[in-house]
Amino acid sequence: MKLLLVFLCVAAVFCSPPRPDLPSEFSANVQIQLPMMPVMDGGRMYYDFPNLRQRVDVSFGGNSHIQLDLYAQHVRYQIQKFAGFEDCKLSPLDEPMSPMALPPFAHYDGNSTIRGQNCMHWSITLGSIGLHWYTKGDTLVRVEMNTMGMNTRMDFFNVTAGPQADSLFDQSQWNCPAPIPPVRHSVGGYIKDATNNRPVSHATVAMTSTSFNGIHLSTKADVNGEFTFAELPEGTYTMTAEATNYAKNSKSLEVKKDIQAGSAADMFLSPKLPAGQWRFVLSWGPRPLDLDAHMKTATGCHVSYRHRHCQTAVLDHDARAGYGPETITVTNRSPGVYKYFVHRFSSGKFSESQAVVKIYNEHGLAHTISLPDASSYADTSRYWNVATLSSNGITVVNRVVSSEP
Questions:
Q1: Measured in whole angstroms, how far is the alpha carbon of residue 274 from the centre of its chain?
Q2: Parallel, antiparallel, or unpaired: how do β-strands 326-330 and 313-317 relate?
């Protein structure tokens, strides 16, 4: 039986047809079917994935319509022509360009008859979205997308592979305005160990845009933990850092100007913890200059910059010039409750601090706690009661108060 199963598995691999090599640049006649809409009249598609641009010309209801997508410039042009009148509308384009080539993880679903042709059927499922390719040799015949019971279909005819002329994507021929390129900034930072503020060499740093979904960039920090992204379009990003023997960390970063290393783009990585240990890492912005992490242990010992070591907890690092980190590690938790809070030591306000506490255990990041809404406390409040630790794990308190917890 085992030999039969092995034979069937090997046969499945070798009997699967070769994957089609679909072109990344082509033009084709197309017919488009949108959900709950009649089939559009035939048109022409010009597809240029290497240069992140595509154009679709179709007719609908006797009127011609051109959609020109310039993904590198994050703009979409909609050109309508009807009754001798021409109208051009420009809108932001915040979606990635879809490659027509099959992804390596596409599944072969057998053959299907499409428009009288015996085609190979390939598919992938991404959550509630199903994507389907129907191919004849190395030629694309049909693409379908199914989501929540709605089906969008595009049929391809007379496909011609090859580079596409720049003139096809020149918006000025329809008197459309030139796209305004996004403002770009340089972003630099350091990746540091949260327990000692020393550099983490060769950490991987990634930036994923939440403003332009097509942007995902990554780089490596150097031996000093420093990294640079030379030209990031202005916007909001999810920044992620990871390194061997450290817990992965991420945060939101707003890029409105150049960011120098040693400021807002710095990130702190927590070394991985053995079972039973907990770590609290406080970080914040440039103001107030000094926020202090405190912990009252179950035995009444008070960990702070004044008394860094208790029997079961230790202040690993104290920061006094903005950004952090302030780090406390519980090394051997005693029965009872541990209280963790933050003291605003210097002048300023909690509401302007951008303070965040990240709590780690042996599994990595367990909790991320940001300050409560500023309307819930007075600007004069000096203490942030963050959380407690007990045999039940972490209990989030998250209240800014006027007296020490």
A1: 29
A2: antiparallel
CA 373 to chain centre: 25
**Calpha distance 37→34 (Å, rounded):** 5
- 400 pLDDT tier (thresholds 50, 70, 90): very high
Q: Which residues contact 64 (CB under 8 A, 6 or more apart)?
A: 57, 58, 80, 81, 82
pLDDT for 217 equals 87
Q: Give the pLDDT confidence score for residue 227 in this predicted structure.
A: 97
Q: What is the DSSP string of 45-78?
A: EEEETTTTEEEEEEEETTEEEEEEEETTTTEEEE
Triad 293, 225, 218: Cα angle to 5°: 110
DSSP for residue 103: P
Asked whether the beta carbons of 179 and 166 are under 8 A apart, the reply is: no
Alpha-carbon distance 95 to 358, whole Å?
A: 31
Structure confidence by residue, pLDDT tens digits, 201-227: 999 999 988 765 557 789 999 999 999
For residue 148 the two structure tokens come to 């929540």
The string of pLDDT tens digits covering residues 168-186 is: 999 999 888 888 777 889 9
What average pLDDT does range 190-194 have in this prediction? 98
Q: How far apart (Å, rounded) are the C-alpha atoms in residues 221 and 244? A: 13
SS3 per-residue string spanning 367-396: EEEECCCHHHCCCCCCEEEEEEEECCEEEE
The Cβ-side half-sphere exposure at 325, using a 13 Å CA radius, reads 29
SS3 per-residue string spanning 242-286: ECCCECCEEEEEEECCCECCCCCCCEEECECCCCCCEEEEEECCC
Cβ-count burial 159-189 (b if 16+ within 10 Å, e if not)? bebeebeeebbebeeeebeebeebeebebbb
Q: Which one of 12-16, 129-133, 191-195 scores highest in mean pLDDT?
A: 191-195
Tell me the sheet residues that pair with 396.
387
CA-wise closest residue to 383 among 285, 293, 308: 293
Q: Give the tokens for residue 393.
A: 């794990």
Distances in whole angstroms, Cα of residue 108 to Cα of each of 12, 132, 243: 11, 10, 36
Kindly report whether the peptide bond that precedes residue 288 is cis, defined as omega within 30 degrees of 0. Answer: yes
